[in-house]
């Protein structure tokens, strides 16, 4: 990915923080990250990894995907190449496959992912397993998915998921607005 294409999440983080009337120190306390690191992110002198971005998003009452989307302009036609990491560090093993400010969000997850977070979306969400295996806990049931399987979750259903095969590749597609993230 060329530097010009790398999303700069700093402005999106700063806008969200200011809209909530929070100081850097308050976001640092909520996220467990240092104020100097947050300042570097806001000034685009540092690029957070996915875990740090999720911690910032949680502290700001939003999601990492929404912060990334808010950092990019909407595009009417956009090709995302297989090697494009969407500005996330490659170690995170997740990449946005839709860029810019759009209602539709799609993420590709590869490798091992744990069910350490619970999600509830107001709109429907679709999960497609390209490779490997996934377990999804939703509505009190565990659903096991394999290659080629899809799972549709209606809006409002609390769920969590994890891969059960380190070779897994999973596509998750959802409407990006109104996502509520909960801790386990």
TrEMBL record:
InterPro entries: Cro/C1-type_HTH, Cupin_2, Lambda_DNA-bd_dom_sf, RmlC-like_jellyroll, RmlC_Cupin_sf, TransReg_Diox_bact_type. Gene3D superfamilies: Jelly Rolls, lambda repressor-like DNA-binding domains. It comes from the Bacteria. Keywords: DNA-binding. The keyword DNA damage does not apply. Residues 13-67 form the HTH cro/C1-type domain. Pfam families: Cupin_2, HTH_3. This is XRE family transcriptional regulator.
């Amino acid at each position: 990915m060329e530097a010009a294409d790398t999303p700069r999440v700093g402005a999106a983080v700063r806008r969200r923080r200011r809209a909530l009337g929070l100081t850097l120190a308050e976001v640092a306390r909520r996220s467990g990250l240092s104020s100097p690191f947050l300042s570097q992110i806001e000034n685009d002198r540092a690029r957070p990894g996915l875990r740090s971005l999720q911690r910032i998003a949680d502290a700001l009452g939003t999601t990492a995907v929404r912060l990334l989307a808010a950092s990019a302009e909407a595009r009417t036609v956009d090709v995302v190449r297989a090697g494009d990491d969407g500005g996330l560090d490659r170690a995170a093993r997740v990449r946005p496959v839709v860029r810019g400010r759009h209602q539709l969000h799609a993420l590709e997850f590869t490798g091992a992912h744990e069910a350490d977070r619970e999600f509830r979306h107001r709109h429907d969400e679709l999960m497609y397993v390209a490779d490997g295996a996934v377990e999804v806990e939703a509505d009190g049931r565990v659903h096991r998915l394999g290659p080629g399987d899809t799972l549709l979750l209606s809006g409002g259903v609390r769920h969590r998921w994890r891969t059960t095969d380190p070779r897994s590749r999973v596509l998750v597609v959802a409407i990006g607005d109104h996502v509520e993230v909960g801790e386990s």
